[in-house]
Specification:
MerR_fam (chains A, B); two-stranded antiparallel ribbon; MerR-type_HTH_dom (chains A, B); 9 helices; DNA-bd_dom_put_sf (chains A, B); homodimer; DNA binding (chains A, B); Multidrug-efflux Transporter Regulator, Chain: A, Domain 2; 2 domains
């Protein structure tokens, strides 16, 4: 198929497809004539995946490239795939404004109290600590029960992530879900949390809207 | 204090502070001379908050403006504040590539099954459905137990969010936490989930690193 058809099939604007191409996020098509390139189903799936990582997952172009590179390396050890997945988190690599020491210590303290087996160079520490710093700017010093509830939520999701991995057949299928599931689990949770908040605050802060689901 | 001091106090690069100012995200300082403007503690806190929303929360400039506007409106009803908080989700307003109908129906189905009281125009539906679409591009059709685990996690966090709101004194303090807590709960969860994943996959996919916390 031509590039215009590729865009239509992937339900993605043509300008976006050309942009992905220019940024090296798509495999080359097949040259069928000097001015003509043919694309196939693999390209359609790749365009959809790139869009999901960039738009829904909120990854940068650079991180998306790393993610695709490790997926395209057929024999990358799963431990390495896992590490790339762990680092594919929106702000983990912008060193200009690191989290405060106090926030980092607080996260480490709760992780140790929960008995989790994790290393302090896990990028999640930095991301979670920055969120605490952000909450502190409005004078909210997250109490233990708040943090522990978020940790319980995180553990529930992580167990579901691992169970999902174990349901996949073959190394490639596992590697794909390891990376994409890690990235897209964030917006999945974010969306469901908005819905759960509406349920939890139903009586406290009612929002006048149409189209109730229940 | 001068703008350079403001930047230092807020631990934010001066270029970033000037950028926030140009984008109208900071209140004006006090003109103390034709070429001199003075800033105070309020500006320091605002710079930190803006940085948290943009960098940690991943919000766009436009959404950050909306969030700050509703916080700066002293008499905005809490239901309105809540609605702005709900919409302050990274991709909820980019209409070019909406979620598939199938994914939207799937989320609605599980929300109804869980008996949650929520409306379908809640932006969380779109975000969660897009995540499902992204997972489908690698052939992972999220099974019920996976989705339900994420819903349980979301409900756990939402209950903690509401409890935290109830611990705040006064309308302004509640409104602030409603918005900032909604935005920063996402990266808090994302960070903790990375740590929980390392714990959950400890034996399955060990990552060779230093600095164990436990």
């Amino acid at each position: 198929m031509r590039i215009s058809e590729l865009a239509r099939e992937a339900a993605t604007p043509l300008t976006a497809v050309k942009y992905y191409q220019r940024e090296g996020l798509l495999p080359a098509g097949e040259k069928t004539a000097p001015n003509q390139t043919a694309y196939d189903r693999r390209h359609v799936e790749r365009v959809r995946l790139v869009r999901a990582l960039l738009e829904t997952g909120g990854l940068s172009i650079a991180v998306t490239k790393q993610v695709l590179a490790v997926l395209d390396t057929d024999d990358a050890p799963l431990a390495e795939v896992f590490e790339v997945a762990q680092y594919a988190i929106t702000d983990s690599r912008s060193p200009e404004t690191p989290a405060s020491r106090a926030a980092r210590a607080r996260i480490e303290d709760r992780v140790t109290a929960a008995g989790w087996c994790a290393t302090t160079d896990n990028p999640g520490h930095e991301t979670a600590a920055r969120a605490l710093d952000g909450l502190a700017t409005i004078g909210f010093d997250a109490p233990d029960d708040y943090l522990d509830a978020y940790m319980t939520a995180a553990a529930t999701a992580a167990r579901a992530d691992v169970a999902a991995l174990q349901s996949r057949d073959g190394r490639d299928a596992i590697a794909e879900l390891m990376v994409i599931g890690t990235v897209l689990g964030d917006p999945l949770f974010a969306g469901l949390r908005r819905i759960a908040q509406q349920d939890a605050t139903h009586d406290v802060f009612p929002v006048a809207t149409d189209g109730a689901t229940s």
